[in-house]
Amino acid sequence: MRAGKKALIIVDVQNDFLPPDGSLAVPQGRETLPHICKLIEDESWVKEWDLVVATQDWHPRGHISFASAHPGEKPYTKIRVSKPSKGEQMDMFIWPDHCVPGTKGAEIEEGVRERLKPWLQDGRLAIVRKGYNMHVDAFSAFEGAVVDVPDPLAASPEVGRYLADKGIDTCVIVGLATDYCVCQTCLSSLAYEVDGRKTFKTLVYTPAVRGVSEQDSAKALEEMKGRGAILVGDEQALLQALKG
Question: What confidence category does residue 195 fall into, taking pLDDT thresholds of 50, 70 and 90?
Fold first, then answer.
């Protein structure tokens, strides 16, 4: 693996997670957009990334995480459900329907999507979708699959292996939501191993993440930091961390 290859992971910047119309909108979610767009468009940043990964929540209708799939239950509550194929019970938060394939809510935000087109044309964009199993929710990008790459026959659909095979050793995480998918993606990145060795230096660029709950987001950031993530709060700090 060549040292120094870097991936920008853009987590779930989809219409359903953005105000004012998203069905599961992160209150300040739109504040991330200028920062994310700059990272993928500005010449001074484009040269930093060997690969851009954009993730999408991708839930079929009737998904186990939807309140509508559990008659009588309300969104934003915790219920008991059966683990797939195990017969055991587990707690699960349920949500409004969101990010259903074929709906506008599942699409990546228009401005980000447009700025990703050159990356696709250049062969440096991978799309990762997660949560597509009807019976399993998924928060981490590493629980998803790579579905759109220039040479899919040569690519592993398993995200960690795909990144490692690309020679990536540093992941910078941005997007939504800090207290859910950003946090879980970060923790998965930190924990991922190849041949028994930790694989990815992991950074979270805090101007470009927002969470559902301010309190839970603060706890999530502390957990990420405690596990070894580097939290960076401005562009200069990010550049320095990438060089370090």
Answer: confident
In tens, the pLDDT along 116-142 reads 999 999 999 999 999 999 999 999 999
Distance CA(170)–CA(190), nearest Å, equals: 10
Q: Is 37 a catalytic residue?
A: no
Among the listed residues 37, 99, 171, 181, the single catalytic one is: 181
Q: Is position 181 annotated as part of the catalytic site? A: yes
The answer to whether 195 is a known catalytic residue is no
pLDDT digit string (tens) for 216-239? 999 999 999 999 999 999 999 999
Please pick, among 6, 12, 97, 169, the residue that the annotation labels catalytic: 12
The active-site residue, picked from 130, 169, 171, 179, is: 130
Could you tell me the two tokens for 236?
Answer: 């200069």
- Using the predicted structure, report yes or no on whether residue 151 has a pLDDT greater than 70: no
Its pTM stands at 0.94
Contacts 24+ apart (CB under 8 A), 124-127: 124/49, 124/50, 124/51, 124/52, 125/51, 125/52, 125/53, 125/54, 125/149, 126/51, 126/52, 126/53, 126/54, 126/155, 126/162, 127/53, 127/54, 127/55, 127/56
